Prior knowledge:
The complex is a heterodimer. By secondary structure, chain A is of the alpha+beta class. Helix content of chain A is 34%, strand content 18%. Chain A has one domain (2-151): Ubiquitin Conjugating Enzyme. Chain A contains 4 helices and 4 strands, in the order αββββααα. Chain A is globular and about 50 Å long. The mean pLDDT of chain A is 90. By secondary structure, chain B is α+β, with helices and mostly antiparallel strands. Chain B has 2 domains: 46-194 and 202-262, no CATH class; 276-331, Herpes Virus-1 (2-Layer Sandwich), CATH 3.30.40. Chain B has 9 helices and 10 strands. The longest helix of chain B has 25 residues, at 128-152. The relative contact order of chain B is 0.08. At the A-B interface, α1 of A face α7 and α9 of B.
Amino acid sequence: xxxxxxxxxxxxxxxxSPPEGIIVELADEANLYKWKVFMEGPEGSPYQGGKFLxxxxxxxxxxxxxxxxxxGTKIYxxxxxxxxxxxxxxxxxxxxEWKPSSKIAAVLxxxxxxxxxxxxxxxxxxxxxxQYKNDRKRYDEIARDxxxxxxxxx
Amino acid sequence: MAxxxxxxxxxxxxxxWLLDTGEDGHDNSQTCPHCESDFTEIxxxxxxxxxxxxxxxxxxxxxNPWADHNPWAQEExxxxxxSGWMESGSPGYSHRSYRSPDGRFTFSSTTIGGGxxxxxxxxxxxxxPFMMQSIDTLFQGLTGTHDIHQTQxxxxxxxxxxxxxxxxxxPDVMHDPxxxxxxxxxxxxxxxxxxxxxxxxxxxxxxxLADLLDAFQGITGAQRGTARNAAxxxxxxxxxxxxxNDAVYSQEELDRVISQLIxxxxxxxxxxxxxxxxxxxxxKKKMTRQxxxxxxxxxxxxxxxxxxxxxxxxxxxxxxxxxxxxxKAWLSQHNTCPHCRRSIDLPGV
Lengths: 154, 349
């Protein structure tokens, strides 16, 4: 399968020269389609100091279908569902916006950028988005609190 | 009998109560005792039919362990009358209705047993989980019965080809003030051929299953204490799916079906596939130095394999190029450039 070759190639590139704050590994050595990504909270964001597990799943049709990204670590963020799924809504991952020339590295960098700068107008958690827009101090406080609680391992 | 009186349904709060027939002729009004609304209506309770003769009882295949199980048996023995249950009965027949303490929902049921006791006190409250587990066998039972009658029916036997159809569902008929009429109407359809001279083939089993699910929906909806709201009730969706032969039995399955539906709608806004002739007629050319990057390397951005000089590639009108096999796979899903999204049907730049 062509997709496996491309995935293997992207994986080795990501392992050899990882983007800032992103560490990638396979969730299961025998399965190229499930990745575990550890993402450091960007500096200056309320997620700083936290290490977030991000599960990346590639469809068998990859790169013709987009990967899915979900947070395995609880995170207080307007663009991540506040449930056990932790789905992240990224515009570029929507079926109608995905293009096969996008690389996983770009997806992950985009996801980390979203931690730095949430997109409240494209939010999936409307309440958190409202708070982000209208009461940034409180949002920062809760996000920092959650980061301490869930994303910092001793 | 007290329960033979009319029941009144309140459209404002959804409560149901027994109309005070007023032995001494006093207050006979239909004002709702719960919310004091006047917007009430007397609901008709269908006339009671005598219990069917045991011989007329449909013989259900033994694969269904719940065929003659009375789900109310437990409640009957444990629930005091004061908890909101009203019941009535003659041998082999009972009608009950239940109204929640806050009056937000009501449901009632009519149970016809064959004149024998179907109590199974040893069973724990059998409602939901057992229902779900036994749906499978229930369906087998229903379809099995249908098949038997299908084969038994000779060419001349067209008077009453489905004696089981009416009796079979009776043990668990739900009477819902919202739906009673609709359900009755639906039951009529497909039960008997309208034209006795030219009976049509039946489509009974599926219809029965859908009806059955409707009944479950009523039970579970009431059990969970939710108002009957088809849009929020997963069992409503479940029964809707059932009608399309797409059966789901668990929450996971339901989730799967729903995400499939979401995927489908999302794809609705994506660019349409390109036609095969449009793909085939795309120009091909050999890689030249200009097409390579400044470092003299190039890769197909779909498979990410390096592309050497003089390799044949397919060029889109936007001048982006790919391996033919790679771009063909993409274009047969969407007619845009994987790189810049420009439609391949537009003239070149």
